[in-house]
Design brief:
five-stranded antiparallel sheet, two-stranded antiparallel sheet, 7 strands, 9 helices, alpha+beta, HisK_dim/P_sf, Beta-Lactamase, single chain
Amino acid sequence: MSEKSQIANELSQLRKKVSELEQHKILLKKTKVELQAANQQLDAGNQQLQASEQELIEKEAQAREAREYAENIISTVREPLVILDDDLRVVSASQFFYTTFEVTPKETVGKLLYELGNKQWNIPMLKNLLSKILPEKSLVENYEIEHQFEKIGYKIMLLNARELLQEKDKKRRILLSIQDITQRRQAEQNLKHLNSELKARTKELQEILYITTHDLRSPLVNIQGFNKELGTSLNELAELLESPDIPESVTTRLSPILKEEIPEAMHFITSSTNKMDALLTGLLALSRLGRQKSVFKDIDMNQLIKDVIDNFGYEINKNNIVVNVSDLPPAMETSFNSISYFPICLIMP
């Protein structure tokens, strides 16, 4: 090969290397640009990661704060509260739960509910609530159970349970509130018993009133009858007194007695027996109270007081009593006239 050919060959190879070098240079620039872009993406990703980490820290702080807030609420509620996990193990409980059922956090948290207190909570109705009823409804209210506890004795409890909402892929939590209604139920039973006794006593009193009014009405009717006969006889005596055969001295002496004193006394008898008859009618109506509807009506209190004063006119005149009555407002009374007897009860000794 001649020297020129060799030089030409070397130049060709040199051009080829220069071309390759240019291509490598272009590739290097491209790689540099890609590397810069990657660095920018990396910086952006790093910033995003830092922001996510900060957000996670804030969320953890919020979650911790919310949990502390919830625990503080639970600890102050004056009702036993228990939070259970999906396996029905105790996650936490209120202080009132520990106090009421005489257990400690150490022997409670992390334990199965049914194993608490030497398995005192192994209650079939409670198992039915948590394992069958609650999963179907997610909320159960006023579920009543009874149980004999070893330490605290017989209890009647009202349970309320609900499933707490959790984020995705997290196990469920169950909030169980326990209200001791033993004393309330006992009070209700006592009240029911007292009501039964009251009804029995009321019925007995009504029967006594009914019998008494009927027994008293019989002699009252006799008094009213004899009073009428006395009035008839008095009229006959008055007619006889007008006979010319009767001496004038006798007529003068008997006339005030037959025409004033005896009629006045008979008036008081009639008025008193009528009032007693009305009183017995009222007592009879009172004995039927509860079996019939009470009807209210207006009553003239001025007329009522006037009738009472008239009924006691004899005693008032005899003792020189002066009665002053101002104008009274109207009132209302029931069908058995209870108000009508009130003034009489105040005046009678």
